[in-house]
Design goal:
By secondary structure, this protein is α/β, with parallel strands linked by helices. Helix content is 50%, strand content 14%. α6 packs parallel to α8.
Length: 403
């Protein structure tokens, strides 16, 4: 058995849950009646499976709020799943995804009225108020969330991302603006963004700005900056924003601008979503080697402990390793006969999840394996005081019969 066999087994559990219902389901359609918008709004919600939810305690997750959710829900959920647990990846945390489908994009996603495009445009302030005062409180009250939020939007949705960053900065921790329509209404939002960036500090706020190649054949970024036609206004606006971010760094934003020469306005969202998560969570992954697992000291434990302290500092709240990961590390260490490390991990799960049946049951297995019958009985009894379980009861009765 390889050192990470047990850990990988739990990642497989995450995938297999879908097969039990003979359906591939990645979320549910919820709804909320908005007094601010005076209408009922559907929301598409994905919540990670957390392995076997019937076994482990309910985990809590950061939340991605996704504009034009009916268009991008599948891709964002898939990317989050792949980068957070599939194939053992821990590039980013597992996250809840809340997709907000569009009813009237021009109304919801534009800050000013431009009747040439839509007579209903200019309702963005109300839409953001709906998100802040109705949607977020609802999600916080119904779903297992952590206090970390990200906003993702493309095109007019990207314009809303930038407007929210500028005017409601603390509403989200991270912003992903994908080819945002900064040309809107004679670049009014671009001008406002530059003005705010010159005066305001954005400490501990992240921005990923993606720019597609929307130029005609024969154009390049040098030529397009000199152009003054309406046809190039979109990319000129974005290149101006990119340049302003780089030359006026007093804003303290944690940001990255990425230009995609081989992507157009329609194709850019998928790769930009992927790159954005890599950038925003560039501190999240902990690279471990076989040497780390073979080390018989507590170095691995200390490395994990310090890593999660760093993650907590970056994300602004206490982040702890998942219960199933520490469970797997405990049994992996036990299998490798690294008893000191195994004990540390089992104790850590009890510390972090004092109401978990699994935490006490697994610690009982540890004590049984090392021949400490008295403590094994105590741990099994603690587990059974949380919930009755036939296998644990059998293990307990077997140990009692030996005394």
């Amino acid at each position: 058995m390889k050192p990470l066999f047990l850990i990988l087994a739990f990642f497989v559990l995450n995938i297999c849950v879908y097969a039990q219902t003979n359906k591939v389901e990645i979320g549910t359609i919820d709804s909320i009646h908005s007094k601010i918008l005076n209408e009922k709004r559907a929301i598409w919600v994905y919540v990670p499976n957390n392995g076997n939810q019937a076994t482990f305690t309910q985990a809590r997750y950061p939340v991605v709020y996704l504009l034009d959710g009916d268009w991008y829900f599948n891709s964002v959920v898939g990317i989050v799943q792949h980068l957070s647990y599939i194939n053992g990846n821990t590039i980013c945390p597992e996250m809840i995804v809340v997709g907000i489908p569009s009813i009237d994009r021009y109304k919801d996603l534009t800050p000013t009225c431009d009747s040439m495009y839509s007579p209903t445009s200019g309702g963005n302030k109300k839409f953001i108020s709906f998100i802040e005062n109705e949607l977020i409180p609802y999600i916080d009250s119904v779903y297992p969330v952590e206090p970390y939020r990200m906003l993702i939007g493309h095109s007019l949705g990207g314009l809303t991302v930038m407007n929210t960053l500028v005017n409601n900065t603390n509403l989200f921790n991270a912003y992903v603006a994908i080819d945002p329509s900064m040309w809107w209404d004679k670049q009014s939002s671009l001008k406002e963004t530059e003005k705010v960036l010159s005066k305001k500090k954005f400490d501990n706020v992240s921005l990923f700005l993606a720019i597609s190649n929307s130029m005609d054949m024969g154009m390049d970024t040098i030529k397009v900056k000199k152009d003054s036609t309406k046809n190039t206004l979109h990319i000129r606006s974005l290149l101006e924003l990119s340049s302003y971010l780089k030359t006026n760094n007093q804003h303290a934003l944690i940001y990255q601008v990425k230009y995609y020469d081989n992507e157009n306005h329609g194709s850019i969202p998928l790769i930009a979503e992927y790159d954005a998560l890599h950038f925003i969570f560039n501190f999240y992954h902990l690279p471990l080697t076989k040497k780390d697992y073979d080390d018989t000291s507590l170095n691995l434990a200390y490395k994990i402990e310090n890593h999660y302290k760093n993650i907590s500092e970056k994300m602004g709240y206490e982040v702890i390793p998942s219960e199933n990961t520490i469970y797997a590390l405990g049994f992996n260490s036990l299998f490798m006969k690294n008893l000191v490390l195994a004990e540390y991990f089992f104790k850590l799960n009890i510390k972090n999840h004092p109401e978990s049946f699994v935490a006490y049951d697994s610690f009982g297995d540890y004590y049984d394996a090392v021949g400490d019958t008295s403590n094994a009985i105590i741990m099994y009894n603690n587990a059974l005081s949380i919930k009755e379980n036939a296998d644990t009861r059998k293990k307990l009765d077997k140990l009692k019969s030996k005394k």
